[in-house]
Amino acid sequence: MNKKLIIGNWKMNMNESDSYTFFDEIKKNNNHFVHEFAIIPPAPLIISIKKYLKKNNINNWVKIGIQNFYPKDKGAFTGEISIKMFEDNTLDYLLVGHSERRLFFNENNQFAIEKALYALKNSNAKIVFIFGETLEQRKKGNLENIIKEFLEKLISEITFEDLERFIFAYEPIWSIGTGKIPTIKEIEEIFLIIKEILKSKFKGKDVNISKLIYGGSVNEVNYKLFLNSNLIDGLLIGGVALESHKFISILKNE
Ligand code: PGA
Question: Which atom of ligand 1 is nearest to 239's Cα?
Answer without folding.
Answer: 4
